[in-house]
């Protein structure tokens, strides 16, 4: 295959054919997908003009920088992307500007559709029959939807039993995936997925598959396009397995290399306190990753103790002069309530980014003069139990208690304070 794009090891830089099914280098480390950007985008200015005129859906619009090698007829899309960028500065005027990129407004209600349009389309292109992932609930929902949409692929999802929301579980089974619950945590499921795909001809679609990372780059690229390529000072993003922060960084680096942006933002990765191996490692200058037994958190999608994309994330955080922070359960739920109340329904994992942005502002790491974009990774409707529980408890700072009355006009008048 004579393709200008190829896999390259992030450590020893050994190269491999992109059309080979491969997730790691022979040395054991992760792979990047490297594109010859000068070949695909010889005139970046002209490319940007084409983007402005394009009526294509997001992945197809940015395909030259995401996955130029895939033929259009192999694409499987649910018309993901083109998600809103909300400016909420009027409610949070401590920031010069704060915007939320709401990836929960994708077809399966999370950012995972961005990676799956690339990953599942690539599996389709390679002629795979079975695709598999381990998941805390959103990857599985997205993979199940895209495999459901294909004519030939069978989706298999491995889920940590009892650790994902009922809505996320409903997505996997309704979209028709073979759904397997396992008495373990996400890290345990991830280990099994790696074992089964090394023994059998089943295509792995977790974010350690670097084709998926290429699709996820679209989140940052689309945000900057919406901002007319004006670069914010900070991108703030929740971190679990660390694929998304790696994708964000890689996409931004490539835009910078092409000269489409002329400034680099800073990246802030935020974790839930009980599952914060990256934040701990950051405090030790990234000397080493000490895997944790991830503790239960309302941000269950990022309850991950041994992030697979750790090394890629560290590379991006160093390159973008980044910062890693963790937030408490109260911070997560209180900030979720405050964002939800704006009519912008976010999940607890997204709220980790919002709470993190506020914390970094309070620590004077994010300055008063900074423009901030926080990535909201999934929709609140995927986690309705956590919202109902929060609002039922009067002890919670921003709770909105339901009033129960008998069917009587005077009781209703009392309830309305009339
Ligand atoms: N936010 C949500 C809603 C997620 O579902 C995830 C990860 C993340 C943030 C963190 O992204 O792992 O790339 O650092 N969910 C995966 C899953 C693990 O299986 O759905 P990350």
Descriptive account of the structure:
The chain has 418 residues and is α/β, with parallel strands linked by helices. The protein contains 17 helices and 13 strands. The chain has helices spanning 37-40, 44-53, 58-61, 63-66, 112-126, 138-149, 166-174, 186-199, 210-216, 218-226, 243-258, 277-283, 310-319, 329-340, 348-362, 384-392, 409-415; strands at residues 6-9, 15-17, 31-34, 85-87, 97-102, 130-134, 154-160, 178-182, 203-204, 234-238, 266-272, 323-327, 371-376. Helix 7 (166-174) links the parallel strand 7 (154-160) and strand 8. Helix 5 packs across helix 9 (210-216). It binds ligand F0G.
Measured between the Cα atoms of the first and last residue, the distance is: 75 Å
Indicate the proportion of strand residues: 5-15%
The overall average pLDDT, rounded, is 97
Main beta sheet: 6 strands, mixed
Give me the number of helical elements: 17
Q: From the alpha-carbon coordinates, what is the Rg to the nearest angstrom?
A: 21 Å
List the ligand species.
ligand F0G
Overall geometric form? globular
Give the number of DSSP strands: 13
Tell me roughly what share of residues is in helical segments.
Answer: 25-40%
Structural class of the secondary structure composition? alpha/beta
Blueprint of the fold:
Elements: E1 6-9, E2 15-17, E3 31-34, H1 37-40, H2 44-53, H3 58-61, H4 63-66, E4 85-87, E5 97-102, H5 112-126, E6 130-134, H6 138-149, E7 154-160, H7 166-174, E8 178-182, H8 186-199, E9 203-204, H9 210-216, H10 218-226, E10 234-238, H11 243-258, E11 266-272, H12 277-283, H13 310-319, E12 323-327, H14 329-340, H15 348-362, E13 371-376, H16 384-392, H17 409-415
Parallel strand pairs: 5-13, 6-7, 6-9, 7-8, 10-11, 10-13, 11-12
Antiparallel strand pairs: 1-2, 1-3, 4-5
Helix pairs in contact: 5-6, 5-9, 6-7, 9-11, 10-11, 11-13, 14-15
Bound molecules: ligand F0G.
The site of ligand F0G has 21 residues, from helix 6 and helix 11.
